[in-house]
Amino acid sequence: MYRRDFPHHPGMHNMDLGGDSHTRVSYRNNPNFCERIGRSLVAVLVGIAVIIVAVCLLWWNEGRAVTTARSLEEGLDRVVSLGTIHVAFDQNNGKLVHLTGPLKTGKVLSDSAYGVSVRAVKLKRHVEMYQWVEHEHRREVNEGDKTREEVTYSYSKEWKSEVIQSSSFDNPTRHHNPNSMAVKPNVFIAEDAQVGNFYLSENLKSKITNYKQLKPQHPPPDGSVKLVDGVFYHANDPFNPQIGDIKVTFEYAGVSSGDSARAPDMVSVVARQQGSQLTKYQTEAGDVLEILYLGELTAEEIFEKEHAQNNIFTWLLRLAGWFVMFVGFGLSTSIINTLVDWIPIVRELVGLGMCTLNMTMSMSLSITVIALGWIRYRPWFGFSILACAMIPVLLSKYRVSSLNSRDRRL
């Protein structure tokens, strides 16, 4: 081995690949059999903890899904669609109401530092700084009783919205970034955002996220700031930026009535009416309803969208829970692979078998937890899912029986 024959050769420790990159090489001893067994025992304990976390995640997700579904059903049953958005009738106070109309704000949003203004619910200032960025690529080579690790560091200049701490770079001397940005990002939000005569709560305003780029046409008050194609640059030469230069762009969301250049955004809201305020509605099922969608939607369409989102989120968490459980079983059974990993052919066969076993156990346990979560609310549906939990086990058993029968015939 090169390292064994030339242990003091400096090139194997810090190789300059040319350009703005370099490679560091280090060696570590490979663990012996006893050390691998010790690590596997620790992995067993970690795997059990991971399985418990997966079970808790799946159980919580089913309870959340049921609560959300029942809350949406309750909301659709009780919602009142308003005939007008220009009058807040007292008889609807405390009720869940549905209304549709154009957005309206009391004042124009502006950023005086750049002379930018727009009549909308939100105006966002986005800031980026030209900085050094470190890229890391690792490569490991097994050399018998040792493993050689090669780490290649390369550097590039990029616009980034967060400050990159160059002090943590492998080579910070030649790649120094400022510790902070001279200009901070900000989001300006209209204090009074309305639909007709109704005022939106802060939570409803937070749901207005249809940002569009704003391209200013007039130069800023500060003559040192340059405007190029709708982008403000704190730089001597925007076409040849230097480390530490700043560029600022603007976006807006929720166009308001009164903007002569843009049509107002239409929104549909489902929330609790409290006088002329729209706020959160607490359902008996447990969830809070405070919904806003862009566009003109009926109450039925809004609740259909909410049900669809609930189903998607539920299935994503189910898949996440199953995957976490699969990883947990893999850690718990890793000691079996460790015991045979010194026998090449057996190692591959046992690895394949354990992977199949872990897949089967994680699927069955995941489906079982999901079923138990539904039995309390919908018994027949829960028991049907519970029966499905046995399918992976039965298929595996049938597969083993078929293989044994074929072997006996041979």
From TrEMBL:
It is found in: Endomembrane system; Endoplasmic reticulum membrane; Nucleus envelope. The keyword Aminoacyl-tRNA synthetase does not apply. It holds the Pfam family TMEM43. GO terms for biological process: lipid metabolic process; nuclear membrane organization. Residues 1-20 are annotated as: Disordered. Keywords: Endoplasmic reticulum, Membrane, Nucleus, Transmembrane, Transmembrane helix. It comes from the Eukaryota. Its main location: membrane. One of its GO terms (cellular component) is nuclear inner membrane. The chain crosses the membrane at residues 41-60, 315-337, 349-374, 380-400. It is a multi-pass membrane protein. Belongs to the TMEM43 family. PANTHER family: PTHR13416, TRANSMEMBRANE PROTEIN 43. This is Transmembrane protein 43 isoform X1. It comes from Lingula anatina (Brachiopod). The gene is LOC106163390.
